[in-house]
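Hi R.,

Here's the chain you asked about this morning:
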Amino acid sequence: MKNKKKTYILLVVVISVWGTIAYKVISAYSEDMPEINAPNLALNTDYKLEYVKDTFSIQPLERDPFLGTVYKPKAQSNFVAKRQKKVLWKPIEYLGVIANGKDKVFIISVASKQTLFKTGQQLDSIKLIRGNKKHVTLRYKNQNRTFKLKQ
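And the predicted structure, written out as tokens:
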């Protein structure tokens, strides 16, 4: 008798499950579906788009996110490039060279005065550094300048 009660209860459960499935299938294919009305949309053409520029700032790193170590910036050098002052040179012209054996004597016109220079010689704070037949290099107030032969 106990077996028959369980069988009747299971029979009712099975019929109700299959009935529910059959109802859903039949209701899905029925033609009595209600019509869906599309809502009337009011079109607004008087709109303005506002563009807001997204700004951000980069913050300095305090620690390395992968290693977990503290970030130590490299020390900045205190090197400041010295600007050289412009030196006004006197009017200088290289006029030629006189070769006397090993010693060379160069003819240079400084402020319209012709003078004779040997390598390393200094006159009025103008020093002859080096020279050859084509050009000479002079130093005046710690600045070098090369002068070509005037022809």
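The first strand starts at residue 92 and ends at 100.

Let me know if you need anything else.
M.
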